[in-house]
């Protein structure tokens, strides 16, 4: 039931505890199958959680998500609760101690990736984001943009004060801009943290709906960046797309154009740092985007 490549990924990341968790997931699924009279489908493409479509005895389609017991899953668990009623996928049932969440299955579940008209995509993103963002009300200690920015510090530590494969000048600029932005942040919200095309799905019953929140405290501008880093290569001149997205989102959502660009450069470099940390070569994409944000800064 659990794909071999997913097992290998978890075992590589968490070692012996990962192997134990995989075993516990298999046992948990059998238990949940009996409790809810579940019928399992084929697992979704998996990253760090085990996610599988299920059918309940009460003729309801749902999604079962089982997460490795760490801060990331805990944050998502609380974010799903805090975003309920604000355009987030509905939670049907859950058990935090056992580490699972049963979610409504969005049908047909097509994402923003399926729309070609950029103006329409931006309008939908803005409508979803405006509904989603709200002032922090939960006592849960969500990560902050400041704590995320420490990823660049870890890059420095890894390379003894250097920047490894990342361009020194861009890392230095991101460090400076992060400091300036964080020192002048005043209007903080509970953000999704990964609000991109693939996490906004269409539901026949509830319209455009959000899935997979990370939960992050920061300024609203920051929650636009992950969206802006996606689906840009199909444009002949990617810089034109980035400029258009920035201007349109700041207008539709009443955001700061300058802060959005600055956060864009910062998060692009941070994303590149994370890729280096994970041993992947995706950092090249982050640096390409950082250079484009830097160009917008100089205009």
Model description:
It is globular, with a radius of gyration of 20 Å. The protein is built from 9 helices and 10 strands. Strand 2 (49-55) and strand 3 (61-67) form a beta hairpin. It folds into 2 domains: 4-105, Phosphorylase Kinase, domain 1 (2-Layer Sandwich), CATH 3.30.200; 110-298, Aminoglycoside 3'-phosphotransferase, Chain: A, domain 2. The strands form 3 sheets. A 5-stranded antiparallel sheet has the order 1-2-3-5-4. By secondary structure, it is an alpha+beta fold.
Summarize the structure.
Helix content is 49%, strand content 15%. It is of the alpha+beta class and 299 residues long. A hairpin with a 5-residue loop joins β2 and β3.
- The level of helicity is 40-55%
Radius of gyration: 20 Å
Number of helices: 9
**Mean pLDDT, rounded to whole units?**
92
Residue windows where pLDDT falls under 50 for at least 5 positions:
none
Number of domains: 2
Helix and strand content put the structural class at alpha+beta
User: What is the CATH class designation of the largest domain?
Assistant: Alpha Beta
Overall CATH architecture of the largest domain: Alpha-Beta Complex
The H/E string reads HEEEHEEEHHHEEEEHHHH
Spatially, the strands of the biggest sheet line up as 1-2-3-5-4
Principal-axes geometry comes out as globular
DSSP, total strands: 10
CATH topology of the largest domain: the name is Aminoglycoside 3'-phosphotransferase, Chain: A, domain 2
CATH homologous superfamily identity of the largest domain: Aminoglycoside phosphotransferase (APH), C-terminal lobe
N- and C-termini, Cα separation? 53 Å
Main sheet attributes: strand count, strand direction, barrel closure? 5 strands, antiparallel
- Beta-strand content estimate: 5-15%
